[in-house]
Amino acid sequence: MADFVNSILAWVESTHIQQQIKDVDYQGLFTNPWFLVPFVALVVYLLYKQAFRDLIIIGLFVGVWWVSGLDYMQTMVVDGRLQMNKVLPVVFGGAGVLALIVYMLFGRSD
Hints:
The chain has 110 residues and is mainly alpha-helical. The protein is built from 7 helices and 2 strands; from the N terminus they run H-H-H-H-H-H-E-E-H.
């Protein structure tokens, strides 16, 4: 089992996904019509279908992505040491977002 997990981690490392996520130009992305038109069409369609749960989940994902690019996240590791006073709010915030998503998907009935 450990070999399987190590092979997946090696594959993820070889794809450089983490670096690609860090290098995304979000201002350029949200002004690019090739992204913006389908994104707005999705939002309009979800509003038309009154799928507010899906809209909130998409908003949460966009918000988490935006927060991950803030300077606060860049200063969590200073001189190779993790700053625990900055990690705890992120952990509790992530747990809150995850709990909200789980509640919206499984806890409510439509």
